[in-house]
Amino acid sequence: MGTPQSEVVDATAFDVEAVRADFPILSRSVGGQPLVYLDSANTSQKPQVVIDAIAEHYREHNANVARAMHTLGAEATVAYEGGRSRIADFVGAASAEEIVFTKNASEALNLCANTLGTRLGPGDEVVVSVMEHHSNIVPWQLVCERTGATLRWFDITEDGRLDLDKAAAEGLINERTKVVSVAWVSNVLGTVNPITLIAEQAHAVGAVMVVDGSQGVPLMPTSVAELGCDLLAFTGHKMVGPTGIGVLWGRYDLLASLPPFLGGGEMIEIVRMSGSTFAPPPARFEAGTPPIAQGAVLGVAADYLAGHSMAAIRAHEEQVTGHALARLGAIKGLRILGPETVDAHGDLGRGGAVSFSIDTVHPHDVAQLLDSKGIAVRGGHHCARPLHERLGIQASTRMSSYLYTTTAEIDALGDALEWTIDFFTRR
Predict the structure, then answer these.
(1) Are residues 20 and 55 in the same domain?
(2) Enzyme catalytic residues
(3) Conformational region of residue 121, where left means phi above 0, alpha means psi within -120 to 50, and beta covers everything else
């Protein structure tokens, strides 16, 4: 099992037009063309309820949290801690104290690497994968360089899945493994990784299982207990929430055993010139003034998604992604990277990021011409250069859908890609 279990949902019952009405930006035009936003793996758009909540917080409740002994300070603290509680519910945490707010998923993963790094030394090993975002590679490289530990990684198969057979043959996860850190869903390939299985292997040798959930939590029903990981990082701006807010969920006993990551106000218990003692989690990892409005409003974003049912969002995403794979797969000269069907690997399914390459057109040119048609995609290596090198290409174009994406928008993308290829062929 790689994803939490959820009920079977009829994707045709999902009212995508009603959802789209909640997102003001989707009604605008770009260059005289209706906006077709297909860059949600980069950042998602925001519903009116989130936009209103941000404005209301700054208009009515703006103050610092925890330390201000007045009404506004109390209101801000209640809003911020309320956001924490709502996120705890969203991922099935045992308590709100297991939720640490960071500024993004990158900071959450750096927190993991730097605190777990205090347990590493020469001879120890950290395991990641070649499909990771740079945020789940570079922090581990840095900590391994500092401690003398060794970084190892999962390879991938030809269809863009983790090569579990090769990993088993090589003894990738072994008695020297102290940390395994893998993405739940690839931001390039859309691959959904078997986190529960990998976590079982990690725990069998006493290793800590870290998961980058940046592309998984916004799209799929999430239960940290069913995933089986020890630490889960994700970010607010990809789940219809504000920028500037990330989340680290951790088993409380593990969080309580880790040292502070940053020093400052609120993460302390007692400070003397001779030394300091530190607050329990989550305060231990939230030095200084936190992203107050963002934390409060991330709870609103989670409530918005939950109100539409994460199972229903997931079913809609699979329908749209399946349509995209079929439409793009029919274009001559276009190569889809990663799994080419949504049900390519048992119950794991596929995420909504669909990356592709076109032999005759550079991804940056593809993105620029699509933008002239009002279609927003991303071109480049998507902060996953090692993966692109493994695939034998320098860069790719990526479309990524979300709960507000329609099959008509996918068809518009397909038509624009055919026009783009024809444009460069005729030059």
Answers:
(1) no
(2) 383
(3) beta
Instruction: Kindly give the residue spans of alpha helices, DSSP state H, lying in 258-309.
Output: 292-308
Question: Residues with Cβ < 8 Å from 14, sequence gap 6 or more?
Answer: 308, 312, 313, 315, 316, 403
The dihedral over CA atoms of 64, 84, 383, 172, expressed in degrees to the nearest 10, equals 130
CA distance 246 to 301: 13
**184 touches 211 (CB < 8 A):** yes
Residue 325 confidence (pLDDT): 97
Contact (CB, 8 A) for 132 and 384: yes
C-alpha to C-alpha distance for 72 and 77, rounded to whole angstroms: 9
pTM above 0.90, yes or no: yes
Structure confidence by residue, pLDDT tens digits, 273-284: 999 999 999 999
Number of domains within the chain: 2
Q: Which residues contact 305 (CB under 8 A, 6 or more apart)?
A: 90, 218, 239, 240, 313, 403
CB 112 within 8 A of CB 102: no
CA Rg value for the chain: 22
The span from the CA of 131 to the CA of 390, in Å, is 9
6 within some domain: no
Q: Same domain for 404 and 321?
A: yes
Residue 242's CB is within 10 A of a number of other CB atoms, namely 21
Domain assignment of residue 364, given as a range: 11-46+309-426
**Beta pairing partners, 249:** 99, 232
Segment 334-350, tens digit of pLDDT: 999 999 988 755 557 89
The 3-state DSSP class for residue 177 equals strand
Confidence of residue 5 (pLDDT cuts 50, 70, 90): very low
**Cα(409)–Cα(344) distance, rounded to whole angstroms?**
24
- The residue from 305, 334, 362 where one domain ends is 305
